[in-house]
Specification:
Number of helices: 13
Structural class: alpha/beta
Shape: globular
Strand order of the largest sheet: 3-2-1-4-5-8-9
Helix content: 25-40%
Order of helices and strands: EHEEHEHEEEHEHEEHEHEHEHEHEHHH
Distance between the termini: 34 Å
CATH superfamily of the largest domain: Glycogen Phosphorylase B
Number of domains: 2
Largest sheet: 7 strands, parallel
Strand content: 15-25%
Oligomer: single chain
Number of strands: 15
Length: 399
């Protein structure tokens, strides 16, 4: 089967979508039929420039930044089209040319104009204004968009939703997302994670004072400010700890300025982006990982990856995080710094509880978030929609 995989963002760009698309593309390129032939002749299309990345080292063809005419030819020559997110050009072309279109949803673009489910002006989770019919509320969500920008995104949300309803299949990484998006032909396929084999396997060395780690882009939606406020509360309670922010982003300067004065001065460290070996070295010292996101999360790769490391997770109670963690880890009310401080304090007091949580998280990650399963289920779905059969509906995602 000639499969065209479209992802607006791809390597060398770094992010959750890029990580999943790379794992999926590599896995699909390696699938073999019983006669040894490749199951999929895969071409990946992206708008991300190559820069110094080695496209030739990948087991599939890459086309970067094609014009509309070239994209149309690629779609016409494909047997099926997979789109990472409801990107309008390939989605429209695929439907016009009568191709089986599969959309994997990595955001909320069909129910939220900004795709984040976050009220930017207040830094609060959105209660679902668009789907509840309170759609004029979306115009005032992000003042930085301006009058025209807000209404443009608002109109495009209707267009994306209308087009996605006509796709052959809509893939969700969590059942929770499927319930939120309410699209037909929906299937749940959990994201798969590369096997994490920490260099400290069997010999974890926790630092003193205990290290609380944050890993992710330093942007508003990730809730780093909530974690800083929780850290202030812990200081008032005379808790000993070191807080480490792993990652970079536009909020870094603002966050750094907030920790230059007591009580946080000297307790918070910013590492910026780290190479894989450096990341593992830092996390080797961590007593827990806090994921305080305010919105924009459809799965939670940072949650799942650190479950795979066996690190205790304290995460906001966004629906995707709750589903991925299941009965492991610790949740707190989204945006509530006082409750976050309480959860962290409880874990700091109990090393045995942290150890138990980490063990159960790793068992869950190893069981449910496998790349091989993700690839097989995608391949099965492509074959089904290509043959015109009703896409399978996976209902076994653990809660």
């Amino acid at each position: 089967m000639k499969l065209l995989l479209y992802s607006h963002y791809f390597a060398p760009s770094i992010g959750g979508v890029e990580t999943i698309v790379m794992s999926l593309a590599r896995g699909l390129a390696e699938l073999r039929a019983t006669d040894g032939a490749r199951e999929f002749d895969l071409t990946l299309v992206t708008q991300t420039p190559r820069e110094s990345f080695d496209d030739g080292g990948l087991p599939f063809r890459i086309v970067r930044r094609p014009g509309l005419w070239q994209l149309g030819r690629l779609v016409r020559n494909a047997d099926a089209l997979h789109i990472a997110g409801p990107a309008l050009p390939p989605l429209t072309l695929g439907l016009l040319l009568g191709k089986p279109v599969v959309i994997e949803h990595h955001g909320f673009q069909v129910i939220c104009p900004t795709g984040q489910m976050l009220i930017e002006s207040r830094g609060e989770p959105c209660p679902g204004h668009f789907m509840a019919g309170r759609r004029s509320e979306c115009w005032n969500c992000d003042p930085s968009l301006g009058w025209f920008g807000a209404r443009k995104l608002w109109l495009l949300t209707f267009v994306r939703r209308w087009l996605c309803r006509r796709a052959a299949a809509n893939i969700m990484p969590t059942n929770w997302l499927g319930e939120e998006l309410k699209l037909p032909h929906a299937s749940t396929i959990r994201h798969g994670l590369a096997q994490i084999d920490p260099p400290w396997k069997g010999e974890i060395q926790r630092a003193h004072p205990p290290v609380i780690a944050f890993q992710g882009r330093l942007v508003t939606t990730k809730g780093a400010c909530v974690l800083l406020e929780a850290a202030r509360i812990l200081c008032q309670e005379r808790r000993e700890f070191e807080l480490i922010f792993i990652g970079d982003g536009p909020e870094r300067a603002n966050l750094e300025s907030r920790v230059e004065q007591p009580p946080l001065k000297g307790r918070v460290r910013f590492t910026g982006k780290l190479r894989p070996s450096e990341l593992e070295a830092v996390l080797r010292q961590a007593s827990m990982v806090v994921v305080p996101s305010l919105g924009g999360e459809v799965f939670g790769l940072v949650v799942a990856e650190n479950m795979g490391r066996g690190l205790p997770i304290v995460a906001s109670d966004l629906g995707s995080f709750v589903e991925v963690l299941g009965d492991t880890g610790v949740n707190f009310p989204t945006g509530n710094a006082a409750e976050l401080a309480t959860r962290i304090s409880e874990l700091l007091e109990s090393p045995l509880r942290r150890e138990d949580i980490g063990k159960r998280e790793k068992e869950r990650a190893d069981q449910h978030f496998q790349i091989s399963r993700m690839v097989r289920e995608h391949g099965f779905l492509y074959q089904k929609v290509f043959r015109g059969a009703e896409p399978f509906k996976r209902s076994g995602h653990p809660r």
